[in-house]
Amino acid sequence: MRERLKGAGLVAVALMGAGMAAGGAQARVTRLHIDSRAALPVKPGERPYEIIQGTFEGELNPADPHNAGITDLVAAPRDARGQVVYRATFAIARPVERGSGVLFYDVPNRGNGRVAPDEDGHIRVISGWQGDLDPAPGRQTLTAPVAAGVTGMAFARFTDMAPGTTSLPLVGGIGVPVARPLAADLDTRHARLFSQTSDRARPVEIAADQWAFADCRNAAFPGTPDPARICLKGGFDPKLAYGLAYRARDPRVLGVGFAATRDFNAFLRHARADDAGTPNPLAGEVRWSVAAGTSQSGNYLRSFLNQGFNADESGRRVFDGVNANIAARHVPLNVRFGVPGGAANLYEVGSEGVLWWTPYADTARGRGTHSLLDRCKASHTCPVVMETFGSAEFWGLRMSPVLVGTGRPRDVPLPANVRRYYFPGVTHGGSMAGGISLDGDKPWPGAPACSLAMNPNPSAATMRVLMRRLVAWVREGKAPPPSQYPLLARGDLVAPNARAMGWPAIPGAPRPDGLINTMLDYDLGPGFRYRDVAGVITRQPPVIRRVIPSLVPRVDADGNEVGGGIPSVQHQVPLGTYLGWNVLAQGYGAGGECGFIGGYIPFARTRAERLASGDPRPSVEERYGSHDGFVARVQAVAQRQVRDGWLLPDDAARLVAQAQASDVLKPRP
């Protein structure tokens, strides 16, 4: 076993993105395989589009400085020319005529994504980057090389198992669970299994003879030996969480995903054909390139920039503009046995790296002074950046240190090429429905059970405006308006508790105290590169060194956020209290935070109903008088948003129509 290869890929990465020439072949797309190419039916006045789908193959030279930071790349198998090869899927929506010249790359989230005609004539592109996903129809995937023989520490966590469960597979991630690496040996004395009653409780060790790497579904304990499953004598308790730290083998070189995105977009922008002569379907059509990612894929873009991948191997800029949406962390992709599909749960890495767009001295964690743009500045390949996020990111994704640092809180300034826009009072990504109703959003399939209704406050209409402004910034050099977000110096940010926030006493409603997802400072061992969230974790589970304080926006007498940001029309003409937090109603952790799902507490309909319940918030009737009064208020605010440039006219018309069609203050039968 090449245990000592834990340092592989830890070559100094200061040269990444520096545009230095390297001997041998450069990383590139070598083959393009087009599986389908179909013209879409169009209606009169619509721009014709075609959808192109297929796969591409690429190769990486481990000796090239642009690839030196990819963990375990030197241990990956080579082809006859000494290159490391990979394969990934892609899809392109290409305007057949009158295109804008803009390639808009949408980073898939856990392999999910699609392309469709763009209203502004942009080329829309997606491709696979996450190498631990199984192929499936409509899923964008990457086949990453495997560093066979390499071993190291891995971690898996288990919650909410069915009663009576005696055997569990080693899996990780959320949304699209993926298999965790196989155990390097079956001796439980070389591993550690523990349980917890809550994330804040002390772990309780489980003796090595009480569990096994085995399958007990069809055989009593100790079951059938299996390096991909664990079995617990007496079964697992659904009320507990279980953590498993174990020695694993044969890691996938997942960091190749960053290079695959870099090289595929560089190919589409600059190449005429692949090595076999297959033409680039976008040859000569791309003048500008913009990338956007949401949640996990937004974290991906932060890591992509931080680790220097926005410079291709010829030293050219890959993306001219980037939008990291509802993203506050890094994706732990370039980590041996990493779990890129995680979501800021206990013991999951991602918040350890550089979090700031301008140099910040992270003295509280002893990480030095760095920024996310250090490497692209060195290679002169920085894009313009638009960062967008909402309330749930403060509560669930540890956004506070991104704004005010890890030590004594202070506003960390932004550089001139970065804009930050905040959406007050929205859930993670904003309401999916985005309508106008006294009721909250319907839970999406698979959503956890929360105590409060789901938050119906949207952000999609504002995002539509901002994406147009991002493209204009790239294509025309037209800078967008100044950043709009909460500032500590202005008193917008306070401690995450009812008293500091000014939380109203709403009868029957929970309080926000204790519901923030705490930011922890982990000790992950000497093989981990904290600046990049990359390398090798040798301490599993990581040692918790300290808690980093977090702040959240203050609220008004209704419980709605005030101070900084771009509030939606619904937020300015409220029908209730829109929250970035919620309370988990059942399962492990019940009574604590409910994922990234924001809650909603509707106002009473009439003054009489309000007085009967003791609600201090004025009723809908007291605010707007009648249905017509409510519609008039929506119309006035929507028109102002259009005038101020935060809403498009067709979205304003849609909102007014929804208000008119709503049952708000309409006489009941």
Tell me about this structure:
This is Alpha/beta hydrolase domain-containing protein. Residues 1-27 form the signal peptide. Pfam families: Abhydrolase_10 (PF20091). InterPro entries: Abhydrolase_dom. Keywords: Signal. This protein is an alpha+beta fold. Among the domains are: 1-95 and 108-145 and 251-280, no CATH class; 151-249, no CATH class. Helix content is 16%, strand content 22%. The protein contains twelve helices and 32 strands. Strands 1, 2, 3, 4, 5, 6, 18, 19, 22 and 23 form a ten-stranded mixed β-sheet that branches. The protein has a four-stranded antiparallel β-sheet with strand order 7-17-11-12, with no helix packed on it. A hairpin with a 4-residue loop joins strand 27 and strand 28 (534-535). Helix 11 runs antiparallel to helix 12 (649-661). The chain is globular. The chain starts with 27 loop residues before the first strand and ends in an 8-residue tail after the last helix.
Q: SS-based structural class?
A: alpha+beta
| Radius of gyration (Å) | 26 Å
CA-based shape: globular
The biggest beta sheet reads: 10 strands, mixed
Question: How many runs of DSSP E, i.e. beta strands?
Answer: 32
The low-confidence runs, each spanning 5 or more residues with pLDDT under 50, are 1-26
Q: Helix coverage percent of residues?
A: 10-25%
Provide mean pLDDT, rounded. Answer: 94
Query: What is the straight-line distance between the termini?
Result: 76 Å
Tally of contiguous helical segments: 12
Percentage of residues in DSSP E strands: 15-25%
Q: Quaternary arrangement of the chains shown?
A: single chain
Domain Alpha/beta hydrolase: 254-657
Signal peptide: 1-27
Organism: Novosphingobium ovatum
Keywords: Signal
